[in-house]
Amino acid sequence: MESPLTGSESRWLHVTKSPIPVRNVQDLVASSDELTAETMERYIRQDIDRDVVLAGHSAEIPVIDLAKLLNPDSVAAELAKLRFACEDWGFFQVINHGLPNEVIAAAKHDIEDFFRLPLDAKNDHAQRPGEIQGYGQAFVVSDDQKLDWADMLSLFSQPPQHRDMSYWPKQPHTFRNSIGEYSSELLKFSRYIETFIAKTLNVDYELMGGNCAVQTLRMTYYPPCMSMPNKVLGFSPHSDGSFITILLEVNSVQGLQIRKHDVWVPVKPHPEALLVNVGDLLEIMTNGKYKSVEHRVTINAHKERLSMSAFHLPKFEAIISPIPDIIEGKVLYKTVRVEEYAKLYLSNKLDGKKALDFAKISPT
Ligand SMILES: O=C(O)CCC(=O)C(=O)O
Ligand SMILES: [Fe+2]
């Protein structure tokens, strides 16, 4: 079947291809006799123990109530909370998000089912040769070539037009429907959140999220690591190259940590909430007022963690720059084309620097 993707969308798929061949972690864990010192070596990080982790702080991640934002009596106070969350945390939980429970339940169910499939069944999705790496350990390779202890499925999604994408996994057979529904509902939710974020800045929605046309979904499975859970990372420290990211913590197993004042703060999954974070492009547009905060995922000795991230981006042709009305003082970020930024972000050629650093205007 001919891919219905348009030019810029298929370019996105090209840039997400894995730069190095890597073994599928879930498969590796399943055949435990292969977990030798040699195979583990690529995952072990000697220095994670040195990082300070602040337990007991997770409850403080702001909780925003979408119902209160939609109520004229409570909107002002809730917007103040949202503004504080974006400035101070870069992360917030959203309750009363409006996604139907059954849509979330069906998506969670199918994500769990997908990762339970044997490897060749996961890979069984029609795709044009060489076009995308839909399933597998993708581009998450840190500079020292240490690998992340995770398996992932990345789907480019822009419902409802692209339900006919040729690379949906064939199993579970309800997957395309459940993930498609979730994706459509999430898009509606994101419009609200982007509108309210624009309101916290007193700018026009069209200037901000109004051009967020692209939603990419990434489902991640973090296998347990019995032998050395404190020596591997599920996801290396990074900030998201999106405008905003919306995370569904599929089975509510803890693992995500966010960096705040140079310590890692664990995020306690909130079963009723969606977790939203500020991405690099929103940081650029707000001239640094809203922070795209670094985060990572740790591994549990006994429990698997499953999550689904939805990255919201403006279309690839869009040009991003600090919005004049928001700038206080100096302009700190360059003007970037979304496509260029996405390529840089995914290129793994950053010499230890974050993509965001390249968008900063260096002080003269
Ligand atoms: O799995 C998670 O909790 C976070 C995943 C993440 O940070 C990402 O997909 O960018
Ligand atoms: Fe992330």
From TrEMBL:
Pfam families: 2OG-FeII_Oxy, DIOX_N. Residues 212-314 form the Fe2OG dioxygenase domain. Gene3D superfamilies: B-lactam Antibiotic, Isopenicillin N Synthase, Chain. Keywords: Iron, Metal-binding, Oxidoreductase. It comes from the Eukaryota. It comes from Brachypodium distachyon. GO terms for molecular function: metal ion binding; oxidoreductase activity. The keyword Zinc does not apply. This is Fe2OG dioxygenase domain-containing protein. The keyword Glycoprotein does not apply. Belongs to the iron/ascorbate-dependent oxidoreductase family.
